[in-house]
Amino acid sequence: MTADAFQTPPAGAHAAPARGIPPGLHFIATPIGAARDITLRALDLLAGADVLAAEDTRSLRHLMEIHGVALKDRPLVPYHEHNEAQALPRLMRALQKGKSVVYASEAGTPLVSDPGFGLARAAIAEDLPVLAAPGASAVLCALTVSGLPSDRFMFAGFPPSAKAARQSFLSGLAHVGATLILYESPKRIRETLRVCVQCFGAEREAVVCRELTKRFEEVTRGTLADLVAAYDGRDVKGEIVLLIGRGAAVQADAGTVEAALDRALATMTVKDAAAAIADAFGLPRREVYQLALARGRAGDSAE
């Protein structure tokens, strides 16, 4: 998390809330760029919790200084993929003693390309309270400004860095019936865009969001071919979100649709299975529902 120079600290310190922070694990979202995008509730939690934990303690300290939140004598525990074995037991002991523990991502919402997942799972496994104070998210911010359909979207994280693995990863997403959202390194964005052309087609709508909420924020919209041209030869810097519009529905013969329905009916209701398969193949829901009813009855008869 970086605070832009145009952000000025508020006057005075942010006081701890009058009522104490309830025991349990509290996840707070932190700004993805503009320091003032922190929520008042997140500041209350930072000011009043018994224990603070963060993926990057330097970033959290800086954010607290900007907003006048004093650390005092409270522990600030680093928690990331490289020290999870050491930090997790310490945080769990605090939770088991009934303390309030706040975990802050380096930027954005915890658990989205963030190591807080293991901490959440451990707390849930012991039936300890797990709560969240929502806030900034690069995924949702990018989707909002992209202009791509937002009624259905899929966050797929970072594509693999190895060439063959990246090709396979993106190919597997080619027929997802939703807007795709990916994170990517500025060093790899040009190559990833070229692979996307191969996997999704040159005319697929796409958007590259760079440095969202920061001073040099940039949103580039167009086809994948347009984006390849726009980024060709550029020295790219900053944090990047890549969004790819949904493609045309997958065409399939009757046997393929029936096989997909059978798989869906094994774990879903007739209504839900019909809706999922109709959307996946671009077919009328009513027709697929009737087919699902028939196949469901046939399956019952076979038993």
Could you characterize what this model shows?
- The chain has 303 residues and is α/β, with parallel strands linked by helices.
- It has three domains: 24-136, Tetrapyrrole methylase, N-terminal domain (Cobalt-precorrin-4 Transmethylase, domain 1, 3-Layer(aba) Sandwich); 139-244, Methyltransferase, Cobalt-precorrin-4 Transmethylase, Domain 2, CATH 3.30.950.10; 254-297.
- 40% of the residues lie in helices and 16% in strands.
- The protein contains eleven helices and ten strands.
- The protein has helices at residues 40-48, 57-66, 84-96, 117-125, 138-146, 163-171, 189-200, 224-231, 254-265, 270-281, 285-302, and strands spanning 24-28, 51-54, 76-78, 100-104, 130-133, 153-157, 179-184, 205-210, 218-223, 240-244.
- The strands form two sheets. A five-stranded parallel beta sheet has the order 3-2-4-1-5, sandwiched between helices. Strands 6-7-10-8-9 form a five-stranded mixed beta sheet.
- Helix 6 (163-171) links the parallel strand 6 (153-157) and strand 7.
- The longest helix is centred in the C-terminal third of the chain and has 18 residues, at 285-302.
- It is globular and about 65 Å long.
What is this structure's SSE topology?
Elements: E1 24-28, H1 40-48, E2 51-54, H2 57-66, E3 76-78, H3 84-96, E4 100-104, H4 117-125, E5 130-133, H5 138-146, E6 153-157, H6 163-171, E7 179-184, H7 189-200, E8 205-210, E9 218-223, H8 224-231, E10 240-244, H9 254-265, H10 270-281, H11 285-302
Helix pairs in contact: 3-4, 6-7, 7-8, 9-10, 9-11, 10-11
